C-alpha cells in the first residue's frame, strides 16, 4: 500500500460498514418475505421501507462528509460511486418488496427464492468486505465471488423469464412478476457495481 504523508478522514470506513450492514438487514427482510403469508407482507414492506430510509440517511451522511472533508481516504469519485451503488442495492430490494405487496402477488414463481438467496449471500460478503477498506487486505476473493454470484443471478433470471413466458401465466400476471424478478436482477447488478468499485479503489491504492 502507498505510504501517505497526510492524515486521512477515517469516518468514511465506519459509514460504509454501516451502510453495508443495513443491506444485510434488507436481504433478511427479503428472505422473510419468501416464507410469509400474503397477509403479513405489508408489515414486512413497512420494515423494508424503514431500512431503505436508513440507507438513504447513511448515503447522505457519506455525501455530507465527502463535501466537508479536505482529505479523503481515497478518490472522491470512488467514494461517491461506492456510496451510490450501496444505496442502489437497498432501493432495488425495497422496490421488489413493495411491488409484491402493491400487485397483491399470491405466489412468487419458483426460482425467486434462488434470486434472493444470491442477494443474501452477496449482502453478507459486502458487509464483511467493507471493514477491509481500511487496509485494502483480503479483498480479492470478495470481488471475485460477488462477480460469480452476479453471473449465477443472471442464469437464474433467464430461467425465470423462460418460466414466465411458458404459457402458465396470463398476460397481466406475467407483467407483474417480470417486473419483480427484473428488479431483483438489478439488485444483483448493483452488488457487482459495488464490488467493481472496491476493486478499482484497491488497484489505485496498491
Automatic annotation (TrEMBL):
Protein family per UniProt: Belongs to the UPF0111 family.
InterPro entries from the UniProt entry: PhoU-like_sf, Put_Phosphate_transp_reg, UPF0111_domain
Signal peptide (residue range): none
Highest taxon above the source species: Bacteria
Listed name of the protein: Pit accessory protein
